[in-house]
Amino acid sequence: MKRITKTAAILTIAAATAVSLTACNSNAGSAGQAELGKLDPGKPTKVTFYSYSLAYPTMKAGMEQLIREFNETVGKEKGVVVEGVADASFQQFKADISAGKQVDVVQHAFGPLDSSRLTLGFKAYEDVFPKDVLDEHFKGISNNALELGKIDGKMYGLAFTFSTPIVFLNGKLFQEAGLDPAKPPQTWEDIKAASLKIKAATGKDGFGLAPNNGWITEGLILSNGGEVLAKDRKSVTFGEDAGVKAMQMWKDLYQNGAHAKGSDAELSEQFMAGNLGMFVTSTALHSGFKKASEAGGWKLYGAGLPRFGDKPAVPVNSGSVLAIRPDNPVKSAAVWEFVQFVTGNRGYTIITSSVGYLPLRTALADDPNYLKSFVDQNPLYKINLAQLEQIKPVAIWPGEYATEISTAFSDAVAKTIMTNEDAAATLKKAQTEINALLK
Q1: I need a labelling partner for 190 at 20 to 30 A (CA). Which of 40, 177, 309, 357 fits?
Q2: Are strands 80-86 and 45-51 parallel, antiparallel or unpaired?
Q3: CA distances to 79, 185, 220, 278, 300 from 195, in Å
Q4: Which residues of 75-91 are buried (b: 16+ CB within 10 A; e: fewer)?
């Protein structure tokens, strides 16, 4: 990391300054205003929506349905047409912004949100939409969810599609190992014991959590009383004692002979093939896992993020926010109509039932007009809904150094878990280097 830090920092700051100045100049005279223009059904306003879900087979149909229903109902009535753009790698929207193309709404990852705020003209909701309009729409959305996309007290992204971690279980492998899948492991000690029993009884791997998973790692550190990014966002603290001990637990689990090896995608395939006892990942994979279990003749079970002893589990979120960059009051009105729909009752009904993510309007799970029947048929979603009570935001890395920090953190975790390197020394070294960068 030391070889690239200074050069990368200089280039990043230069680029950020140039683009930020351009954005400020283009918005001159409108700062502080939060007014919506008047839409005209006779002359529809186009909104471009860049979405990674549109690029994934398991999510594409649901996201297309979301856009289609909006265009055919609210969009047609109010005068808004949304055009979806598939963006699997989160790079297309950046390239199009740099090329001067229209980019209005982005299904944006959490980690690099601050970087986009600083360099690509994304705006705070409070600066674009009237307060009373926001307050009214936010009623019914989990308060914890509303905090997820905030930077320095302002919402630069409204939580959109996200999940909490679920331990998916293969009921057949559990039973073959003499375990009851209806009484799943609750602590990491339980996970280790169950994984070893599954391996001994079936010859198949008992547990899987890919070192490159990213977001779930943060939940492990928080659950052991540690911290990843300080509250003032001016330093990282994952290399302190609580974080080190959490990673040492995972290292022991990973190297005990019953832990599956491979990337997130490889472990997902192994689990769907019926060759992995437990796999921790996002609810977004639920529909695929359920179909695989039915085809393979085994039953899918689940549990929440395990605890460290008596400490409560503290999950973080996966997924995305809706980041916005309208350039005039009419476009702001058009963007708001779309945001309202996709994060409203009908929107979250589609997102949960057809895409696989959580309904942030949790009351929909008990409403027979929306998601009650779906959740009753898919009870694993109740685990996720319960975890919203304890959820903490995944780190939004300081914008100037978001890429460097994310890479250094991920590399240190992978090295800690997968090799014989000392966990404390490895994590502390990465922490020190990142904090030197942030000074």
Answers
A1: 357
A2: parallel
A3: 56, 10, 18, 8, 16
A4: beebbbebebbebeebe
Residue type, 290: K
DSSP state of 362: G
CA 176 from centre of chain: 34
- Phi and psi, residue 247, nearest 5°: -70, -30
> Strands 165-170, 276-282: parallel, antiparallel or unpaired by DSSP?
antiparallel
CB 224 within 8 A of CB 245: yes
As a whole number of angstroms, the distance between CA 146 and CA 154 comes to: 11
274: left (phi > 0), else alpha (psi -120 to 50), else beta?
Answer: left
Using CA atoms, how far residue 102 sits from 15, 26, 121, 169, 404, in Å, is 20, 14, 12, 44, 28
Q: Give the length of the chain.
A: 439
Q: Report angle CA 266, 280, 242 to the nearest 5 degrees.
A: 120
Cα-based distances in Å from 47 to 33, 59, 70, 430:
21, 21, 12, 42
**Quick one: tokens of 110?**
């959490």
Pairwise CA distance, residues 156 & 152, whole Å: 10
Rounded CA separation 12/90 (Å): 18
Q: Please tell me whether residue 435 adopts helix, strand or coil conformation.
A: helix
234 vs 438: CA distance, rounded Å: 6
CA torsion 187-188-190-194 (nearest 10°) is 140
Hey, what are 305's tokens? 């993020």
pLDDT tens by residue, 302-356: 999 999 999 999 999 988 999 999 999 999 999 999 999 999 999 999 999 998 8
Q: How far apart are CA 99 and CA 121, in angstroms?
A: 13
pLDDT, tens only, 158-205: 999 988 999 999 999 999 999 999 999 999 999 999 999 999 999 999
